[in-house]
Amino acid sequence: MYLINLIFYFIPLYFMPFEPLTFGLVLAALVPFVACYFWAYNSNSQKAIYPIMAMIVLACLVTPLSTGSLSFFSFCGFFIGFFYPLKRALLGFAAISLILLSLNIAVGFEHYMFTLYGMLIVFAVGVLGVVERKRHQIKRQQLQSRNEIHTLATMLERERIARDLHDIMGHSLSCIALKAELADKLVAANQLDLARQQLQELGLIARESLTQVRDTVSSYKHKGLDASLSPLLQSLRDKGIAARLEGDIPKLDPNTEGQLILILTEWVSNMLKHSQAQDCSIQFKQQGSELELVMADDAKASPITEGNGLRGIRERVSALGGSFNYTTQGHYRFCVRLPLTNPINQAQAGGAQQ
Fold first, then answer.
1. Which of 2, 4, 125, 6 is nearest to 71 (CA)?
2. Can you name the residues that pair with 132 across neighbouring β-strands?
3. What is the sign, positive or negative, of the torsion defined by CA atoms of 12, 15, 17, 18?
4. What is the set of domains in the chain, with CATH numbers?
5. Which of 72, 77, 117 shows the shortest CA–CA distance to 94?
6. Phi/psi at 253 (5° precision)
7. What region holds the Signal transduction histidine kinase subgroup 3 dimerisation and phosphoacceptor domain (predicted)?
């Protein structure tokens, strides 16, 4: 992308007369320069000095032939600003300025515009390199922070699962072991009625433990609408779509929340695969005893042929007793309306609004 700035290298070739040999040499210099550019682009701060020096040498060789060499110097300034701390970068800009002054004198330009203009370009482009380096650092830090948060959340979740399993199964398994040992001793003592009683209690404890484990596993699977929305919105932002959440996230019963999560997941999946949108929003709104979910984006709309995704959303909404419609006038807008007839939904949604 940055190579587009080489257009300034060709301006002197267009406006000034050149001998065919000189013209050919100036064009040929582009080949090693582009190679040095990609060398620097793929380098780190320890090794970037080598391609930068090579570009400076190449720019010096081109200067007697064409003042378009300032374009080469500007790339050197960018990479110096990008790879090195501010103090070292300023020293680099100063060194290039001295080189420009020396070339101005050695080549014999009539005025010092070559030096002054070159210093201005190198400094301005170098500052862009510094800004780009800061942007990359912030991006890396944000990625590292997200990874650390994800790792910490995983560790906390593992600890919670371990604690829950210990609390649920530890006592039950101890009771089962004691009941089994007692039943074995009663059988050995030929007290079969008492042994049968212990075995019945053992079976009851085992069934209760199984129910508790199933309930616990179900709670792990159901993360809730709030927890599920964050990664969905982040996946849109990672693609470069400005995703917004509007309104309060309602607290609903697990079944309704689960269906809404699947609906939103399907919509986000379609956005990631097919949409050319730059901006989108997910809006929750309660109107009386009805919950409205609106999913909209700014992509240029075209007629929709319903596939499995939209049919699946319609079926899920219908199973909850709601309605689903969409418009394609200008932009896409999908609307889901659900009745809050479930007492749990009414109470929890009302509490969320308060």
1. 6
2. none
3. positive
4. 1-221 (no CATH), 225-353 (3.30.565.10)
5. 77
6. -70, 155
7. 157-223
Strand partners, 225: none
SS3 annotation, 302-343: CCCCCCHHHHHHHHHHHHCCCEEEEECCCCCEEEEEEECCCH
Q: What are 221-238's pLDDT values in tens digits?
A: 556 788 888 888 888 888
Q: Which residues pair with 286 in a beta bridge?
A: 291
Block residue for tokens 């596939």:
307
At 73-131, the pLDDT tens digits run 999 999 999 999 888 999 999 999 999 999 999 988 888 888 998 999 999 999 999 99
CB 261 within 8 A of CB 294: no
Residue-wise pLDDT tens digits, 296-344: 999 888 888 888 788 888 998 999 999 999 998 888 999 999 998 654 4
d(CA 67, CA 118) in angstroms, rounded, equals 10
